[in-house]
C-alpha cells in the first residue's frame, strides 16, 4: 500500500493491523452519538477472547466484604446509562511537528456513546471499602509488552465502565474494551 492510500476495514481507517487500531473517518460523523460501526478501536495488545459464562468480577483488597460476581448476577444489579466521550490521548498526533512516535491518528480517535453499566459505587458499597483505602485498581484481560524495551509489562486498566454491559443498547465488542460482553 502506498503511503497516500487509505486502507479501510468496516468503514474505519486502518492505522495498524497488529495491534489493531482503527480510526473513525471524522468527516463522516454527522451525529452527536458515534455509530457503533464507526467507533474507533485502540489496542496495544491482542484482543482477548472472553467466555461470558466463565467470566467473574472480583472485588477485593482494602474492603470488609470481598466478593466475586458473575456476568448473569451483574445483569441483575441496578444499571445506569450515561453519554460519555472517549478520546485516545494520541488523537491528532499526525499533525504534530516535529513528528512523534506512536499511532499517527488524525481526528477520528474519539467517539461519543451512551454507555450502560453498573456504577462502580454500587459494587464498592457492597464490598464496604475500608477508610484506609486510597485507590481502585482495575485489571483487564489483555496484557503484554510494548515495543520499547524499557517499558513495563502492562495489564490494561478497564476504566470507569467496570460493569459495562452495553453501548447504545447494543452489546459492546471486546475490541472496544468491554470487560464482560462477548
CATH topology assignment? Sulfite Oxidase, Chain A, domain 2
Residues in helix, % = under 10%
Strand content: 25-35%
CATH class: Alpha Beta
Compact description:
With about 180 residues, the protein is mainly beta. It has helices at about 70-75, 120-125; strands spanning about 10, 10-15, 20-25, 40, 55-60, 65-70, 80-85, 110-120, 145, 155, 165, 170.
Structural features, described:
The chain has 182 residues and is mainly beta. It has one domain: Alpha-Beta Complex (Sulfite Oxidase, Chain A, domain 2), CATH 3.90.420.10. 8% of the residues lie in helices and 27% in strands. It contains two helices and twelve strands. The strands form four sheets. Strands 1-2-3-4 form a four-stranded antiparallel β-sheet, with no helix packed on it. Strands 7-8-11-12 form a four-stranded antiparallel β-sheet, with helices on one face. It has a two-stranded antiparallel sheet with strand order 5-6. The longest helix is centred in the last third of the chain and has 8 residues. The two termini are 33 Å apart.
Amino acid at each position: 500500500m502506498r503511503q497516500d492510500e487509505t486502507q479501510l476495514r468496516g468503514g474505519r481507517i486502518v492505522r495498524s493491523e497488529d495491534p489493531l487500531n482503527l480510526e473513525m473517518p471524522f468527516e463522516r460523523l454527522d451525529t452527536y452519538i458515534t455509530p457503533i460501526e464507526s467507533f474507533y478501536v485502540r489496542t496495544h495488545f491482542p484482543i482477548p477472547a472472553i467466555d461470558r459464562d466463565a467470566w467473574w468480577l472480583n472485588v477485593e483488597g482494602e474492603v470488609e466484604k470481598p466478593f466475586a460476581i458473575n456476568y448473569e448476577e451483574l445483569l441483575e444489579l441496578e444499571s445506569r446509562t450515561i453519554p460519555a466521550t472517549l478520546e485516545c490521548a494520541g488523537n491528532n498526533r499526525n499533525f504534530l511537528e516535529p513528528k512523534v512516535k506512536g499511532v499517527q491518528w488524525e481526528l477520528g480517535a474519539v467517539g461519543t456513546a451512551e454507555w450502560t453499566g453498573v456504577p462502580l459505587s454500587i459494587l464498592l458499597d457492597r464490598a464496604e471499602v475500608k477508610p484506609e483505602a486510597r485507590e481502585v485498581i482495575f485489571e483487564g484481560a489483555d496484557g503484554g509488552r510494548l515495543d520499547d524495551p524499557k517499558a513495563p509489562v502492562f495489564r490494561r486498566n478497564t476504566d470507569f465502565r467496570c460493569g459495562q454491559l452495553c453501548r447504545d443498547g447494543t452489546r459492546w465488542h471486546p475490541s472496544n474494551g468491554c470487560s464482560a460482553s462477548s
